[in-house]
Design goal:
Organism: Candidatus Vogelbacteria bacterium RIFOXYD1_FULL_44_32
CATH topology of one domain: Rossmann fold
CATH superfamily of one domain: HUPs
Number of strands: 13
Helix content: 40-55%
EC number: 6.1.1.17
Subcellular location: Cytoplasm
Largest sheet: 4 strands, antiparallel
Distance between the termini: 79 Å
Number of helices: 18
Subunit structure: Monomer.
Strand content: 5-15%
Strand order of the largest sheet: 4-5-8-9
Structural class: alpha/beta
Function: Catalyzes the attachment of glutamate to tRNA(Glu) in a two-step reaction: glutamate is first activated by ATP to form Glu-AMP and then transferred to the acceptor end of tRNA(Glu).
Length: 431
């Protein structure tokens, strides 16, 4: 593959883009980085009425969150003088002409600029779909600008791709029908033809095209719902591509290494929320204890009161069954870990029979404070609990420590609380 590869992501800032849209950015980025090339961001803001600064800001925020760094950034509207220059050249050379129109309805133009169609068959090779041919006769003389200062999509895109040095155009298959028009314009202005790769559409579970109305969310909404950026990156990379092995969980560096446009499928890729959640759990498992601790203490600030030994025990327990980081917010709001800092009020009904509590305390006394860890606590109590009945021994111990019907096992809780606090809470519940 050439070393001077240049790809682009060219979104329109006319609304919040959903995760399916960003799949194009992911594929373009991976291909460029894999080949030591450039990845360009171009904001296509020529729709002046619908383009909004907040949508552009969200695009930048989303790419930064994913970790997709771009080498150059352009705003299509800033290239307007170059668009006009090429329109003038095309009119002068006879490739385009000013067309007098009969307005059909109020607001229609009485004059536009049309491309002089040579009415020929255009054939191009697509990296995913192979050779594709179009008879352009049916396109007639199509409009390329409303005026010299108002190019339409096809003209602006071709000029921008040419002047920005694009070598590969990686985009959705819904753009296939645009390609013959754009090739004709390329030939008219003397631009080299880029290599095309049209990706399969991202589909909703009912196999319709993914859209916001079909439940697709803006990328930053997934962030706010507690998904990791590496989750979305990995998930989107697998929408329409796989490495040809059973592997599914990849870091960005691994994706750059393994990605292959030739292995992109032709059929649509289903956006499956359950699979996305699975990816999030898998990527949470790959985080280090230090990373998990930072996340936990950031989302539940009270946990920062605990020392490193306590957090070392607690954090894996917190994340054991976690699917999204938003569940940490629910824990904080529900006061799930408040008992670690304040002895809970415990009802006698929930506590139940405490006849073995004194013997439990005596067994715990045999463990030194510095050895008061879950394994040692369990070893000290397990045989006794097995003999007398695990529920009869362990239930009142756990409830006395947490005040909750559901919580981590009593060995883990006791280790986090420490020997003295554990004894104090258990002694307080003796009959």
């Amino acid at each position: 593959m050439k070393a001077n590869i240049v790809t682009r992501f060219a979104p329109s800032p006319t609304g919040l883009l959903h995760a399916g849209n960003y799949r194009t950015a992911v594929f373009s980025y991976l291909f460029a980085r894999q080949n030591g090339g450039k990845f360009i961001l171009r904001i296509e803001d020529t729709d002046r009425e619908r383009s909004k600064p907040e949508y552009e800001a969200n695009i930048l925020e989303s790419l930064a969150w994913l970790g997709l760094d771009f080498d150059e950034k352009y705003r299509q509207s800033e290239n307007a003088p170059v668009h006009r220059e090429y329109l003038e050249k095309m009119i002068a050379s006879g490739h385009a002409y000013i067309s007098k129109e009969t307005p059909v309805k109020e607001g229609d133009r009485s004059e536009v600029i049309r491309f002089k169609n040579p009415n020929k068959v255009v054939t191009f090779s697509d990296l995913i779909r192979g050779e594709i041919s179009f008879d352009t006769t049916e396109l007639k003389d199509f409009v390329i600008a409303k005026s010299l200062d108002e190019p339409v999509f096809h003209l602006a895109v071709v000029v921008d791709d040419f002047t920005e040095g694009m070598t590969h155009i990686i985009r959705g298959e819904d753009h296939i029908s645009n390609t013959p028009r754009q090739i004709l314009i390329q030939e008219a202005i003397g631009a080299p033809r880029p290599i095309y790769a049209h990706l399969p559409l991202v589909l909703a579970p009912d196999r319709s095209k993914l859209s916001k109305r079909k439940g697709a969310l803006a990328l930053t909404e997934y962030r706010d719902r507690g998904y990791l950026p590496q989750t979305l990156l990995n998930f989107m990379a697998m929408l329409g591509w796989n490495p040809g092995t059973e592997e599914e969980v990849f870091t960005l560096d691994q994706l750059i290494e393994k990605f292959d446009l030739a292995k992109v499928q032709k059929s649509g890729a289903i956006f499956n929320d359950e699979k996305l959640l699975w990816y999030n759990r898998e990527h949470l498992k790959k985080l280090s204890l230090s990373e998990l601790t930072n996340i936990a203490t950031e989302r539940i600030p009270d946990l920062a009161q605990l020392n490193s030994n306590q957090l070392k025990i607690l954090v894996p327990v917190i994340f054991e069954r976690l699917s999204t980081l938003a569940e940490l917010d629910e824990m904080r709001e529900g006061g799930e870990w408040d008992y670690l800092f304040t002895a809970p009020a415990v009802s006698k009904e929930l506590l139940g029979e405490t006849k073995y509590l004194a013997e439990t305390i005596a067994l715990l006394e045999n463990i030194s404070a510095d050895k008061f860890v879950p394994e040692k606590i369990k070893d000290a109590i397990w045989d006794f609990a097995t003999e007398k009945g695990r529920k009869e021994v362990l239930w009142p111990m756990r409830v006395a420590l947490t005040g909750k019907e559901k919580s981590p096992d009593p060995f883990t809780v006791a280790a986090i609380l420490g020997k003295e606090e554990t004894k104090t809470r258990l002694l307080a519940k003796l009959d």
